[in-house]
């Protein structure tokens, strides 16, 4: 079976166009792979959880009977150790969880420092 003469350049043009489109789409078009999209959605979910639980953490710090001692310890500590103090106080442990949330502890520490 003999192919028409015009078919070969058309196929090369289609392949070149597809490669060009893929390069432009992934570089500037905002296309992402499935794993990148999954990672982005996990980060967005974590950020949303932290933002929604930060007021809860601040309220826990205000209602804690040992708050003055913990806040004095936070003021005396370096920036690196403050997150650990919030975690140890239990303010960054969401309801139903056994372990504190690191990102929540960071956000809570910053919110407490600002207030």
Question: Could you give the topology of this structure?
Answer:
Elements: H1 7-27, H2 34-63, H3 67-76, H4 79-89, H5 102-114
Helix pairs in contact: 2-5, 3-4, 4-5
Description:
- By secondary structure, this protein is mostly helical.
- The protein has a domain at 42-115.
- It is built from five helices and no strands.
- It has helices spanning 7-27, 34-63, 67-76, 79-89, 102-114.
- The model has no long low-confidence stretch (mean pLDDT 92).
Descriptive tags:
115 residues, mainly alpha, 5 helices, 74% helix, rod-shaped
Entry summary:
This protein is an all-alpha fold and about 120 residues long. The protein has helices spanning about 5-25, 35-65, 65-75, 80-90, 100-115.
Number of helices: 5
Unreliable spans: none
| Shape, per Cα inertia axes | rod-shaped
Class computed from helices, strands and strand pairing: mainly alpha
Q: What's the count of strands?
A: 0
Rg of Cα set:
26 Å
- What gap, in angstroms, lies between the N and C termini? 81 Å
Quick one: biggest sheet? Answer: none
Query: Whole-number average pLDDT?
Result: 92
* Helix content range: over 70%
Give, in order, the helices and strands: HHHHH
Please indicate the percent range of residues in DSSP E strands (runs of 2 or more). Answer: under 5%
Keywords: Membrane, Transmembrane, Transmembrane helix
